[in-house]
Amino acid sequence: MHDLQEHFKESVQFLAIYISEAHAVDEWPIGSKVAPFEQHRTLEERLTVANKFVTDFDYKITTLVDNMVPELCFERQMGAWPEQFYIIDKKGLISFIGTPNEQGFPPSVFRELKEHLTKALAPRTTGTSSSSVASTSAPRKTGILSWFGKRK
Asked: 113-144, pLDDT tens digit by residue?
């Protein structure tokens, strides 16, 4: 994801939202991806774990933390657990959702994401019937949100 952020840094805002832990020891301890802590019970716990993730993994993408109110949290409203990538266009519409498989995100998801962003940000040309001259619009700023809760 850092490579994509660097590639599109002039036209795309990358954000991550830390949601509930996907493999907490007290909830869903599966395989080698078990987190070394329990599911967050308070916002302070979630903030602590999110900060640890950003530090431990040298995560460069601006990271926000989801709230703890079930009816207001992104995780439930967007079906983001355990992890998703969304492209939200300038109008606020979701134009792409990247979903992992059992092993995480396959390389094809990142290729599709890059292709989608490249196409979405390409200058548009318009022609008129009286002229063959095309005009281009300025690049549109779009955004990507990555909801995550699992470890590498």
From this structure: 888 888 888 887 655 444 333 333 333 334 44
Task: Look at the chain and report how many structural domains it folds into.
Answer: 1
3-state secondary structure of 125: strand
Poorest-pLDDT segment among 18-22, 57-61, 76-80: 76-80
Q: Is residue 140 part of a domain?
A: no
Q: Is residue 61 part of a domain?
A: yes
Give the pTM.
0.68
Residues 6+ apart with CB under 8 A from 121: 8, 11, 12, 139, 140, 142
Read off the tokens for 103: 């092993």
CB atoms within 10 A of CB 100: 15
- What residues contact 75, with CB distance under 8 A and at least 6 apart? 19, 20, 66, 81, 147, 149
Angle at the Cα of 9 from the Cα atoms of 113 and 18, rounded to 5 degrees: 65
Q: Flag whether pLDDT at 25 surpasses 50.
A: yes
